Amino acid sequence: MQSASLPKVSVVILNWNGKNFLEKFLPSVIASTYNNLQIIIADNASTDGSVSFVKDKYPQIEIIVNTTNEGFAKGYNTALKQISSEYYVLLNTDVEVTPMWIEPIIALMEARKDMAACQPKILSYNNKKQFEYAGASGGWIDQFGYPFGRGRIFDLCELDQGQYDAIEPVFWASGAAMFIRSSAFHAVSGFDVNFFAHQEEIDLCWRLQLAGYKIYVQPASIIYHVGGGTLPMGDKRKVYLNFRNNLVMLTKNLPLQERLWKILFRVGLDSIAAWKGLLSGSGITFIAIAKAHLHYWRWMFFTQYKRAHPPMSTSKLIGVYKGLIIWDYFIKRRKTFSEITARKN
């Protein structure tokens, strides 16, 4: 296809004090071979000289500057309202892309007009034969809201041996490298800004599915992700956001007949995780989960907005595992995606 007939793609990199990553990984993005490409840095009020660096080194790159650190969710919402393009690519700063990473996904999305979002295969930058935590080869979720991926269960990432190279519909696409149809993004009002960061992409993909769209993974596109670029694993802020946001997501998107008992069950499981952390010497984990629950209940009873009940049960959504993944992983010792999903789905 000639560049004139290719849909416009805008790669939007949300940055907060990520100058070191921009120095390292922007050259790979600029080397992308797609012929109708726009690259934009959306900066969340960085103080490390990121904006000056990009202006001096890459004057051809557009920059949107947010006046405060709005987090992942609101930061992207603010930026994407200012960008006119058929497709957005939401790309983390700590990602190295391959030259032809865009073409396979855009070709797939052009062929499937019901597809709202798609992700590439995500491998670890530090071990390029291993899947990376943030999405692996497409995201799933179990019926109680625990996210996992094709190639990643909890903190265990499998080696990539081509076992998840099939193009498949999934539940969620990773926010580390999410291709999304701009019309679909705006049709569901983008990210929920209350999330700030963490699991907002899962909530978005859930709402997209409820709206009738499909989410896919295209493993012919490959990127390499460092991971933990903003908040490292085990950080108390990360623990807090993950636990709080997961409960908010379930409350928003589960149908009424599933909502109450599943949320109470999850609160119980979260409490076990909190006490396990405390007894193993991680008081930070205990406090972070307790704070997440406190703020969730406050949101639930005082600040959540009224909304119509979602129109479908989780049994009709793609990429939902009908079991309890913590039981299979920790008790039955099933450690890979294929081992777990082969048993129930």
Question: What this model shows, in words?
Answer:
It is a single chain. The protein is of the alpha/beta class. It contains 11 helices and 14 strands. Strands 1, 2, 3, 4, 5, 6, 11, 12 and 13 form a 9-stranded mixed β-sheet that branches. The chain has a 3-stranded mixed β-sheet with strand order 8-7-14. β1, α1 and β2 form a beta-alpha-beta unit. α1 packs parallel to α2, α7 packs antiparallel against α8 and α8 packs antiparallel against α9.
Which spans have pLDDT < 50 for at least 5 consecutive residues? none
Shape: globular
Helical residue percent band? 25-40%
Q: What is the beta-strand fraction?
A: 15-25%
| Helix segment tally | 11
The radius of gyration is: 19 Å
Which sheet architecture does the biggest sheet show?
9 strands, mixed
Structural class category: alpha/beta
In short:
The protein has helices at 19-30, 50-57, 71-80, 103-111, 182-187, 200-210, 236-253, 256-279, 283-303, 325-331, 337-344, and strands at residues 9-15, 37-44, 62-66, 87-91, 95-97, 115-124, 139-142, 147-149, 152-153, 156-157, 168-169, 177-181, 214-225, 320-321.
What tags apply to this protein structure?
345 residues; alpha/beta; nine-stranded mixed sheet; three-stranded mixed sheet
Please specify the SSE layout and strand pairing.
Elements: E1 9-15, H1 19-30, E2 37-44, H2 50-57, E3 62-66, H3 71-80, E4 87-91, E5 95-97, H4 103-111, E6 115-124, E7 139-142, E8 147-149, E9 152-153, E10 156-157, E11 168-169, E12 177-181, H5 182-187, H6 200-210, E13 214-225, H7 236-253, H8 256-279, H9 283-303, E14 320-321, H10 325-331, H11 337-344
